[in-house]
Amino acid sequence: MRILSVVTLVTPTGDFGGPVRVAVNQAAALRAQGHEVVVIAAARGYEGEFPTDVEGVPVRLFPARTALPGTGFAGLRAAGMRRWIREHRNDFDVAHIHIARDLVTLPAADLVRRLGLPYVLQPHGMIDPSSNPLAAPLDAALTRRVLRDAAAVFYLTPVEKEGLAAVGGGDLDLMFLGNGVPEQPAAGTGPTSGELEVLFLARIAPRKRPTAFVDAAAALAPAHPDVRFRLVGPDEGEGGAVTAAIAAAGLGDRLEWEGPIAPELSVGRLARASVYVLPSVDEPFPMSVLEAMSLGKPVVITDTCGLAPFVAETGSGIVVDDSIEQLTAAIDALISDPTMTRSMGNAAAEATRERMSMAAVARSLAETYSAAGSSRR
Fold it and tell me: Which one, of 201, 194, 255, lies nearest residue 229 by Cα?
């Protein structure tokens, strides 16, 4: 099949996070199974011309413009994208839109709907009942109708399913779709130098709670002189607080924020860690956690994370509440017990290999696309 994949924003430092990783992983797996896929998105941050591929996946990128200042990603638009979609509509059999309440993916979804191109939507937890004053008019103008006319709307958790039904206000074709992860060779549980590393790799944003990670590191460091703590990710609002907290901890090079890295380097960076920690709350299905698990890393996540039942059931890490005390205790347990760390890491690699295969996700997508195309004929 010929598949058009739409995502909000591509940057060299992975500012938009998980949805882009998911879109690229899906496209690569579908291409491996013989399908044609092009990913289109707004883009910024590149020097010179935009790339024509991301990790081997063909992309068509459009200049990101700020249409609504002060609204972050939601206020971005992709200059020229809608015209390109009109011109290339007949080049595709189906569209897969990684949708959010923004001015890139919502207008794209509405356009493919009006052009009669079958489409599916994947919101990644980004469309739910909202008190934001901009949500109501946007939902009335665009969100509800694109949800209702989609051949399928994918959800990650029961909570997301309920939220989508509430926003859609009618019968939606809701389907579960997990975020698969490419199979990786297990990387073991840390550097060969004998020094352990605890890693936070995510956007430095309030929802991710990077300062909670810093607080836990500051509490643990005196008892664990052989452990280093690292944060990796772009600043999305918490950079100042993180910098101040790191300085206050006074741990020197044992606690550092390395800044952002290119998305294609994230797996390699995860491979160097011993333990992966994501203290964020209400996280639907974080790709960074799945990637860490696929590499054989034990993880520490909160009980509001969509992956918490999977991690707990498979013994792939430790699930905590949102308190600093439980977060600190969980990290302490792992860095104090190499046998536990190794056992949970092995369980994580096995669980993702058996139950989160990217190939299986691609096959499921292809079946859904085919059904979507058949329903429009």
Answer: 255
In terms of residue numbers, what domain contains 141? 2-180+357-376
Residues 101, 226 within the same domain: no
Report the C-alpha gap between 224 and 231 in whole angstroms. Answer: 18
Q: Which of 361, 365, 374 is nearest to 118 (CA)?
A: 374
pLDDT of res. 325: 98
Q: Which helix (H) or strand (E) holds 39?
A: strand 36-43
At residue 377, the pLDDT reads: 47
Q: Quote the CA–CA distance of 299 and 277 in Å, as a whole number.
A: 6
Select the more confidently predicted residue: 145 or 373: 145
Higher pLDDT, 344 or 68: 344
Model's pTM, two decimal places? 0.80
In angstroms, the CA 220 to CA 309 distance is: 27
Of 86, 92, 84, nearest to 42 by C-alpha is: 84
- Alpha helices (H) in 229-272, listed in sequence order: 239-249, 266-271
> Does the residue 264 lie in any domain?
yes
Query: Residue 191: inside a domain, yes or no?
Result: no
User: E strand or H helix at 10, and its extent?
Assistant: strand 2-10
* 20 plus 100 within the same structural domain: yes
Is 351 in the same domain as 361? no
Whether 58 is covered by a domain: the verdict is yes
> Nearest-CA neighbor of 155 among 172, 138, 139?
172
Quickly tell me which residue has 């997508």 as its tokens: 365
| Whole-angstrom Cα Rg for the chain | 21
The type of residue at 6 is V
Rounded-to-integer distance, Cα 72 and Cα 66, Å: 8
pLDDT given for residue 187 in this prediction = 56
Q: CA geometry: angle at 251 spanning 246 and 252, to 5°?
A: 90
Whether residues 217 and 240 fall in one domain = yes
pLDDT tens-digit map of 207-226 = 999 999 999 999 999 999 99
Based on the fold, state whether residues 230 and 343 are members of the same structural domain.
Answer: yes
Q: What is the pLDDT of residues 296-320, one digit of tens each?
A: 999 999 999 999 999 999 999 999 9
Q: What is the number of domains present in the chain?
A: 2
Neighbours of 61 (CB within 10 A): 22
pLDDT of 137: 86
Q: Which of the pair, 320 or 134, is modelled with greater confidence?
A: 320
Question: What average pLDDT score do residues 325-333 get?
Answer: 98
